[in-house]
Amino acid sequence: MAEFTMELNDEQKEVRDWIHGFAADVMRPAAAEWDEREETPWPVIQEAAKIGLYSLDFYAQQFFDPTGLGIPMTMEELFWGDAGIGLSIVGTGLAAVGVLANGTEEQIGTWVPQMYGDVNDVKVAAFCSSEPDAGSDVAAMRTRAVYDEAKDEWVLNGTKTWATNGGIANIHVVVAVVDPELGSKGHASFLVPPNTPGLSQGQKFKKHGIRASHTAEVVLENVRVPGHCLLGGKEKLDERLARARERAKAGAERVKNAAMATFEASRPAVGAMAVGTARAAYEEALEYATTRSQFGRPIIDNQGVAFQLADMRTQIDAARLLVWRASWMAVTGKPFTSAEGSMSKLFASEVAKKVTAQAVQILGGNGFTREYPVERMHRDAAIYTIFEGTSEIQRLVIARTLSGMPIR
Ligand SMILES: Cc1cc2nc3c(=O)[nH]c(=O)nc-3n(C[C@H](O)[C@H](O)[C@H](O)COP(=O)(O)OP(=O)(O)OC[C@H]3O[C@@H](n4cnc5c(N)ncnc54)[C@H](O)[C@@H]3O)c2cc1C
Q1: Using one digit for the tens of pLDDT, what is the confidence trace for 139-164?
Q2: Closest to 68 (Cα-Cα) out of 325, 408, 263, 357
């Protein structure tokens, strides 16, 4: 039985320092350029691949860290380096987790390595769930998947939006409706292999922050994928749909939703990204406050500034603790009876928004310019309260979990 400890072990510290080195030496110097270019930083992804930081092996190792801290530690350091480049590096992992969560062993073994490509030819993957009329309201999804039994193929039609790496990905994981009567219980996920006819990129979004990360619409027009591209396989899908239909017929009000448990386990990773950005901005602000003088003394000599820094640091540490708790719960199989995963994402993302705004304020006019990185960090931080479920949706999930009520 492991003893309780708040410390990373030696191996974890070594990995953390190694990621930090890459974040400081490679990501930070490149951050402003790729933010301005608003393009996927392929050369940086390639550098990460060269040292093994962009690879299935590395993420699998962190994913299976028995303490649960491998992934949050990785996310915090990468996003401390830069959020836009960070998402370009870990975006593939979001699609890979979709396959790990629902795929068969064969599907995982065949497709996940292809998502990363190899050192000389790096690839990215995309996870496509959101649609123009189905963001928070996932059940409103309209993209259809229809089975063509004669050919053992699924035919996908619809428009996905906001897909990170959408259209530039080697492999797209697409969530689609297989039974419209069943709401979100009638959804299934499909792998769309490279160069499949009918899949195209729609508009690429020009964004407020994380601009190095590619975000675009994905249009699916009669996209045919082989039967084996249905994640989990047809037999499992048919069983799941039959169970859902029976429950619907019996009028069962609340069924335990496996997808919710997956979200609880994945949301702390987004919380950790937010902690990374918040910590980066706090460090810039602390440095500035001790070196910038006004009225003949460093500005940190004013309580108005010093107390802000005290609050910033306290909130960042509190956010990290919530993230670590939820990550530990996920890996040790503890039930999320209070939606602790959602709690950690809610708190950390709100902290990142607040702390980066305070950092801009502490840097004064300089904080408002692109000469200093806090301006970019502030723009980047705005994403954390939006993707992987907005703050309002996190509150909804927490409130429903606590009360057992169908709070709307
Ligand atoms: C940069 C970026 C990258 C993304 N990457 C991906 C990706 O890779 N794959 C993917 O599938 N999606 C992705 N998304 C989509 C993201 O998850 C959605 O934007 C998010 O879920 C919110 O959906 P929406 O934008 O449609 O907002 P809406 O759902 O329309 O919400 C608008 C506002 O209404 C509020 N609201 C909605 N319903 C309620 C309610 N019941 N109670 C209270 N308030 C409510 C929301 O909180 C929000 O403030 C990405 C988004 C962005 C911006």
Answers
A1: 999 999 999 999 999 999 999 999 99
A2: 325
Q: What is the pLDDT of residue 159?
A: 98
The encoded tokens of residue 11 equal: 């191996």
Cα separation of 382 and 209, whole Å? Answer: 7
What percentage of the chain carries pLDDT values higher than 90? 91
Q: Give the DSSP letter of residue 104.
A: -
CATH code of domain 125-249: 2.40.110.10
Q: What is the pLDDT of residue 208?
A: 98
Strand partners, 175: 189
Average pLDDT over residues 67-81: 97
Calculate how far, in angstroms, residue 129's C-alpha sits from the geometric centre of ligand 1.
11
Architecture of the domain delimited by 10-122: Orthogonal Bundle (1.10)
Residue to mutate (ligand 1; options 386, 391, 395; most atoms within 8 A of CB): 386
Residue 202 tokens, joined? 């729609």
Q: What is the mean pLDDT of residues 293-307?
A: 98
Residue 254 has pLDDT above 60, yes or no: no
Q: Which ligand 1 atom sits closest to the C-alpha of 392?
A: 47
- Measure Cα distances from 30 to 38, 45, 81, 389, 408 in Å: 12, 11, 10, 29, 43
Q: Measured in angstroms, how far is the CA atom of residue 396 from the centroid of ligand 1? A: 14
> Is it true that domain 258-403 has CATH number 1.20.140.10?
yes
What is the 183 CA–ligand 1 centroid distance (Å)?
18
Residue 388 bears catalytic tag? yes
Distance CA 175, CA 187 (A): 7
Pocket of ligand 1, beta carbon within 6 A: 127-130, 135-136, 162-164, 207, 210, 215, 383, 386-387, 389-390, 392-393, 396
Q: Whose CA is nearest to atom 35 of ligand 1?
A: 392
Structural domain spans, the chain: 10-122, 125-249, 258-403
Contact between 221 and 211 under an 8 Å Cβ cutoff? The reply is no
With residue 139 as reference, give the H or E element that holds it: none
Alpha-carbon span 281 to 289, nearest angstrom: 12
Q: How far apart are CA 32 and CA 27, in angstroms?
A: 10
391 alpha carbon – ligand 1 mean position (Å): 10
Q: Please write the tens of the pLDDT for every residue from 177-193.
A: 999 999 999 999 999 99
Alpha-carbon gap, residue 74 to 273, rounded angstroms: 9
